[in-house]
Each structure stands twice: as structure tokens, then as C-alpha cells.
């Protein structure tokens, strides 16, 4: 059986593939509301008709107008229509990164416009049609599938996550290079022109879920979520980089060495690891999915700041996140400051 996605109505699942889906496309300083509007307007040389189609309230109205003026369609339209469609479908996805991510996330499934009315662009309803639109979408998908940041993570699904601080929208991603599952918890509405308050939180099962006081992770996690809710909007990225990238079992090995006197950096090194094995480059994929170009980043870690910047993300402001200092993590925090360069206030680690 072929794995196929059939789409048609823009409000149905995979409706974003339809030309009727709202997807603003800017060309020569004007904004076309949908690819359908643009496509129909190109049939005419008369600028008045083009303008009328541009102004159509809905894509259905744009379609109907083009039928109304059928006798004025330009002579070579049948020769150029496929090229026009290819161009505008490509622009639709290039200019709407969320849609490009969703397109790439369809993987290698066959995309079919399931249209009873159309056997050229669609499948004709019974599968006998040419599905030219589906083929163009698959070509465009091929292009973005091989391109950063679209190939870094695949978005899978989103759902509500009510918490003690407020209700977040949780987005699930799969990192393409490793198969790891990462989360973005979005609170409130993100404005594309304002850098949101974000936290890139590396997984620490012991601190985040098991209340460990050996580190500051659990305390930072709750404060970060609280801060985001208080700010009115923001994103907590939960990155599956357990143990600074060495994994849970190796972190227990490292803790064992620390119980015997090693510090957090020495323990990693004795196990044959670098002090910090994390790679943040895939974060660009999640940020681009959320249309975030610059951020206010909650962290004390200068390596994280550098890594994020070198992954192409602009840090507008660093927001310190000093939480949970206690007798059990006193040495851990001091080592972080001395060897990893964490920027803590003197009072926090005294
Ligand atoms: N290998 C190792 N990992 C640890 C140890 N203690 C905590 N971790 C891990 O360190 C990571 C902490 O990550 P973050 O909370 O992002 O903290 P950070 O990189 O110090 O930076 P900020 O909190 O942003 O300032 C988590 O993945 C923890 O599992 C340890 O002693 N050894
Ligand atoms: Zn921790």
C-alpha cells in the first residue's frame, strides 16, 4: 500500500498544502493573500482584472473571477501555467517557514490533491487525474528537505500542556541527525518582531523529575517556566541532552566519581568525555518552525551563549537564572563558575 496524503479543503488536515490555504506571499512589495489569488491573476494581461483578483476577499472569489473573465485569458496560458504554479507554490513555502517545515515533515509520503473537479492539478476524485499540484508540492518538498534549517528537525504534533503556572502549547520534534525527541513549550502569542523570553533547558532527569539537589536544573526549570508565564509569552525548549550530552547512565558514573572526590568536569574527563558534549545546532530548526529570529535567553552559561550564536540565533539579551543553590550543589556550582565560566553573582556561590 502506498503511504499517501490526500488533501483538498484548506481547513482539513494537511489543508496547508492547498492553494486556498492562507499564506501571505510578498512579490514586488505587494502581499498576495494566497497562492490561488496569484495563480489566477497571472492568466490576464489586463491590469484591472489582475487587480480585481488581487482584491478578492477569498480564494474562491479569485477562482470565480478568473472563470468570469475566461474569454480574456492570455493566449499562451496553457504553456506557462505549470511554471507559474511551480513558482508560486515554491514562494508560498519559502516565505512561510512554518509551512515549509510542515511540508518537510510529510516525509516521503505521496501528496495528492484529492479533487473531484480537477483531473489536471488534482487526482480527478477517482485517482485517474494527473495530480500535477501534488507533484509540484513533492518537488518543492525535495528542495526544502535537503536544506537547513528544515532538515534539522521534523515537527510531529502539538497539544496543550497545563501546568501549575499556566497552559503551554507543547510542540514535539524529532532531531533528524540523532532521532532524539525534543520539545518546545510555547506560552502566549509570539510576536515575530519581538525577541521572546526563552530557555534552552538540557534534560536532567535527576534534577527535573526526581528533585535532586546535586545540581540546579530542577530549580531553574520551574523558575524559567514561571518567568515565561509572568512575561506573558515565551518558550521553554526541553532538549534531550541528558548529562551535558553523555546520557543518564554515564551521568550516574560521573556522579559516582564525584562521590569519590572528583569535580563535575574531572569526572567527565576521567570517563573519556569532554566537559560538555552538547551540540545545539538543531535548535535552529525548532526556532525557525516558531518563526523566532532573535531571543532573550535565560542562562548563566557562556558556552551556551556562544553555541547558540554560532547556530545563527541572535541573542538580544542574556537573562541570568540563578536558582536552587544549596549545600549539596555548592561545589558543583563553584566548579561551573571556575571551570566552565558560568556567570554567577558572588553571593550566589559563596
Ligand atoms: N555530565 C554531567 N552532567 C551534569 C552534571 N550535573 C548536571 N548535569 C547535566 O548538565 C545539564 C545542565 O544543563 P542546563 O540546565 O542547560 O545548564 P547549563 O548548561 O549549566 O547552563 P544554564 O543553566 O543555562 O546556565 C543537564 O543536561 C544535566 O543533566 C554532572 O555532574 N555531570
Ligand atoms: Zn541537573
Description:
The protein has 350 residues and is α/β, with parallel strands linked by helices. It has two domains: 4-145, YbiA-like (Tetracycline Repressor, domain 2, Orthogonal Bundle); 153-241 and 278-340, GTP cyclohydrolase II (Rossmann fold). It has helices spanning 35-41, 47-55, 59-68, 77-95, 97-104, 132-145, 205-209, 217-231, 248-259, 264-270, 283-289, 302-310, 330-339; strands at residues 4-7, 25-27, 30-32, 110-113, 153-162, 167-175, 181-187, 197-202, 234-239, 294-298, 314-319. Strands 5-6-7-9-8-10-11 form a seven-stranded mixed sheet, with helices on both faces. A two-stranded parallel ribbon has the order 1-4. Strand 5 and strand 6 form a beta hairpin. The relative contact order is 0.09. The structure holds guanosine-5'-triphosphate and zinc ion. The active site is at 276 (proton acceptor), 278 (nucleophile). Residues 157-320 form the GTP cyclohydrolase II domain. GTP binds at residues 199-203, 220, 242-244, 264, 299, 304. Keywords: GTP-binding, Hydrolase, Metal-binding, Nucleotide-binding, Riboflavin biosynthesis, Zinc.
List the defining traits of the structure above.
350 residues, alpha/beta, Tetracycline Repressor, domain 2, Rossmann fold, 2 domains, 7-stranded mixed sheet, two-stranded parallel ribbon, 13 helices, 38% helix, elongated, binds guanosine-5'-triphosphate, binds zinc ion
Amino acid at each position: 500500500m502506498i503511504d499517501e496524503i490526500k488533501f483538498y479543503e484548506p481547513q482539513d488536515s494537511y489543508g496547508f498544502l492547498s492553494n486556498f490555504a492562507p499564506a501571505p506571499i510578498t512579490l514586488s512589495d505587494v502581499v498576495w493573500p494566497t497562492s490561488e489569488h496569484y495563480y489566477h491573476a497571472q492568466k490576464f494581461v489586463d491590469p484591472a482584472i489582475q487587480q480585481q483578483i488581487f482584491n478578492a476577499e477569498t480564494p474562491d472569489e479569485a477562482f470565480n473571477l478568473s472563470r468570469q473573465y475566461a474569454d480574456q485569458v492570455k493566449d499562451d496560458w496553457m504553456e506557462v501555467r505549470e511554471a507559474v504554479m511551480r513558482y508560486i507554490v515554491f514562494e508560498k513555502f519559502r516565505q512561510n517557514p512554518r509551512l515549509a517545515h510542515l511540508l518537510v515533515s510529510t516525509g516521503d509520503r505521496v501528496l495528492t490533491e484529492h479533487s473531484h473537479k480537477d483531473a489536471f492539478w488534482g487526482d480527478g476524485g477517482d485517482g485517474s487525474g494527473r495530480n500535477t499540484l501534488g507533484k509540484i508540492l513533492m518537488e518543492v518538498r525535495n528542495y526544502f528537505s535537503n536544506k537547513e534549517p528544515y532538515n534539522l528537525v521534523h515537527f510531529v504534533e502539538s497539544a496543550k500542556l497545563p501546568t501549575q503556572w499556566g497552559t503551554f502549547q507543547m510542540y514535539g520534534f524529532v532531531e533528524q541527525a540523532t532521532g532524539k525527541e525534543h520539545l518546545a513549550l510555547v506560552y502566549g502569542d509570539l510576536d515575530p518582531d519581538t525577541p521572546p523570553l526563552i530557555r534552552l533547558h538540557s534534560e536532567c532527569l535527576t534534577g527535573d523529575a526526581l528533585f535532586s539537589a546535586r545540581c540546579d536544573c530542577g530549580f531553574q526549570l520551574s523558575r524559567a517556566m514561571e518567568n515565561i508565564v509572568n512575561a506573558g509569552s515565551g518558550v521553554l525548549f526541553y532538549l534531550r541532552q541528558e548529562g551535558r550530552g553523555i546520557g543518564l547512565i554515564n551521568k550516574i558514573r560521573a556522579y559516582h566519581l564525584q562521590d569519590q572526590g572528583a569535580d563535575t568536569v574531572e569526572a567527565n574527563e576521567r570517563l573519556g568525555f569532554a566537559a560538555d558534549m552538547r551540540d545545539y545546532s538543531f535548535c535552529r530548526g525548532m526556532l525557525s518552525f516558531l518563526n523566532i529570529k532573535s531571543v532573550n535567553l535565560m542562562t548563566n552559561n557562556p558556552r551556551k551563549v556562544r553555541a547558540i550564536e554560532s547556530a545563527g540565533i541572535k541573542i538580544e539579551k542574556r537573562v541570568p537564572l540563578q536558582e536552587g543553590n544549596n549545600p549539596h550543589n555548592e561545589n558543583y556550582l563553584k566548579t561551573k563558575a571556575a571551570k566552565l565560566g558560568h556567570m554567577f553573582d558572588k553571593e550566589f556561590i559563596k
